[in-house]
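INFO batch 0412 | record 1 of 1 | parsing
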Amino acid sequence: MTADSAPRPIDEQRPTQHTPRTRPRSIGSRIALLIGAIAFLFPFYYMIIGSLQKEPDSSPSGAFPNPANLSLQNYAAINSAISLGRSLVNSGIFTGGVIICTTVFGLLAGYALARLHFRGRGSTFALVLLVQVVPFQLLLIPLYVLIVRDYGLADSYLGMILPFAINTSAVFIFRQFFLQLPPALFEAARLDGAGELQILFRIAVPLCKPALLSVVLLSFTGPWNEFLWPFLVTKRQDMQPLAVSLANYISTVASASANPFGAILAGACVLAAPAVALYVIFQSRFTSTDIDSATKG
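INFO prediction complete | emitting tokens
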């Protein structure tokens, strides 16, 4: 048998039947993803265009406006009506306080439920899961009576923050992440004489940056867009977050303005901008930490 007639390897004998089908499938999936992305982003695009129009145009042609009809006067109008700067400060303080409380209490409770052994730990975690299925609206009346009438915290940042200080979702996220960490890390630290708080903040926290980022972003979206509770607690306009100020503008001042449609969309753009910016900046940070490297060496 000559070299030319020698049997070829099995891989070379198999016909590449599936190769021509790969590219059409890839192109089709990309087209489908592109259509989905356009459908998802179009409301945001229309919101921005509507906020810049001098004369409102709610027809489909309004999505492609005349450049001469674009201006920033709607932002000036909404700013003069509700004071965007003050409303943004109130939203920032309210949201920042909720994020700090949620992160701190979530870390402590999640670590305790994951790494401390005490009687009733399973029942406590089941209670945490049970709280998640209770709608917040059912607690509005008792919370209002407790915080506003009993504690006298109406028109205050503390009164807005307290009902959101503990987030059971954050507790669940931290607990699940701490359960994935190697037990040898905690046992070695205890043998070296470290206390539980030292183990938490020096060992566990540096390894749970993805969970921290997830909790911060999830905790940001809720209070930043929250309307019902701040609306009940705050009566003074200088204490109201941006979402409440926009709602009051729509119900009272908008009917008397020259372009209420554009002013409302301008306020919505300002309200949505920080959340969109955070997700764009930190979307690449949702990666898992290589915790195996901590146990090597």
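INFO post-check: The radius of gyration is 27 Å.
INFO record closed
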